[in-house]
Amino acid sequence: MNPEQTTNQTSDINTDATISLKPEQMITPGDTNGSSISYGDVMMVAWNMFTKRVFKLSSLLLIPYIAPLLAIITGFLVFRYIVNDPQLLQSVMLHTYTVGYPPVWLISVVGSILLTFGFIWLVLQNWSMAAITHMTLVSGDMGIRQSYRETKTFLWRFIALILCMGLFVFLYFPLLIVPAIVMSIYFAVAMQVFVAEKTTVKQALLRSFTYIKGNFWSVAGLVATWAIVTMPIGMILDVIIDNSEIAGVVIITRLVSFILSLVFAAFFMCLTTAIYKALRSQKTEINVTTKISYFVYPAIVGLVVWVLLLVVALENAAKQVPAIGK
After folding, report:
1. Would you call 28 exposed, middle or buried from its count of C-beta atoms within 10 A (0-12, 13-18, 19+)?
2. pLDDT at 23
3. How does pLDDT run across 205-242, given as a tens digit for each residue?
4. Domain total for the chain?
5. How far from 230 is each of 174, 264, 265, CA to CA, in Å?
6. Would you say 136 and 49 are in contact if contact means Cβ atoms under 8 Å apart?
7. What secondary structure letter does DSSP report for 234?
8. CA separation for the pair 104, 115 (Å, rounded)
9. DSSP summary character for residue 80
10. Which of 6, 16, 65, 279 has the fewest CB atoms found within 10 Å of its own CB?
11. Residue 247's domain spans which residues?
12. Does residue 278 lie within any of the structural domains?
């Protein structure tokens, strides 16, 4: 199939099941009559999507970093004009506390700054993810402001979805790691389902699982390809940073690493959207038979394992601390 023709196909998605998306704005990669998604077509559609929107997508990923920048500026202003003690500022920045431990009120102020801007960063990060998801689902041109406006109505539910996905993967992690990887694959298109089909958080997770069930290895192969290409580059840059003694080289390498992380993340979002559209083209009707308990019960086991690991870690730490008074 010609990739250029692929992007001109029309999806059979019901307009009532979408949010601000018309059927002609959807693309349908792959063979709709096939039993599995086409690896080459999905990759090509993802690449075409990426090349058309790389700067906008990267900008959306960059915007959340305004929060830590503002946190640094606010902290500097607090120390400069309220504390007005350069030695104390240097002591706190270097964690040496050479002029005495910071007072409680100062720790409270710094903590408040970190919590406030940390929350702002969390909101901006997830809002950008929602905006990127929406932008990649639309085949037409869309600006950054418009993508934010289109997604603000369901932002908090989208954040709840991200937190649920992260929580499940976290709880599955101690179960020999593999279940966490498998679950992350099954949740790969949950964000796209949530945005395009206007579902609840629970339905987004279940429908993502239903879409990928039967195409697990195809989706895993696509995600693995992205990881195989991007991870070695990141590792090489980390080696350069760790072993270079020239400050200029370290700064430039860190900057390149940061820019590439944005680019790689942008392509991954395009890839998951292309996967979703390919899966959607196969299944005009979704019959969700899986219950949420299918995910919850293993998560409870994972929670128990995490608690046991924490208890063991605390016991080992207590043994290493000398008894008071001895």
Report:
1. buried
2. 38
3. 999 999 998 899 999 999 999 999 999 998 998 888 88
4. 1
5. 25, 7, 10
6. yes
7. H
8. 16
9. I
10. 16
11. 3-49+143-314
12. yes
pLDDT, tens digit, 9 for 90 and up, residues 76-129? 787 777 666 666 666 655 555 555 556 676 677 778 888 899 899 999 999 999
Residue 231 near residue 52, CB atoms below 8 Å: no
Place of tokens 């020999």: 176
In a domain, 123, yes or no: no
Q: Is the CB of residue 60 less than 8 Å from the CB of residue 264? A: no
Mean pLDDT is lowest, of 22-26, 41-45, 267-271, for 22-26
The whole-angstrom separation of Cα 307 and Cα 302 is 9
Residue type, 303: L
Residues 6+ apart with CB under 8 A from 53: 135, 136, 266, 270
The answer for 121, left when phi > 0, alpha when psi is -120 to 50, beta otherwise, is: alpha
Q: How confident is the model at residue 244 (pLDDT cuts 50, 70, 90)?
A: confident
- Only one residue has tokens 């639309």, namely 138
Q: Is the dihedral of CA 307, 310, 315, 318 positive or negative?
A: negative
Give the single-character DSSP code of 101: P
The H or E element spanning position 85 is none
Amino acid at 246: I
Task: Please state, in angstroms and rounded to a whole number, the distance separating the CA atoms of residues 192 and 207.
Answer: 10
Which amino acid type is present at position 307? V
Residue 79 lies in a domain: no
| Residue type at position 93 | M
pTM higher than 0.70 for the full model? yes
Is residue 105 in a domain? Answer: no
Residue entry with tokens 């702002």: 120
* Owner of token pair 């046991």: 308
Calculate ∠ Cα 195-266-54, nearest 5°: 110
Matching residue, tokens 């699982």 = 209
Which residue in the block uniquely carries the two structure tokens 């997604």?
A: 151
Tokens representing 102? 């910071």
Is the separation of the CB atoms in 12 and 284 below 8 Å? yes
**Separation CA 274–CA 136 (nearest Å):** 9
What is the spatial distance between Cα 203 and Cα 186, in angstroms, rounded to a whole number?
13
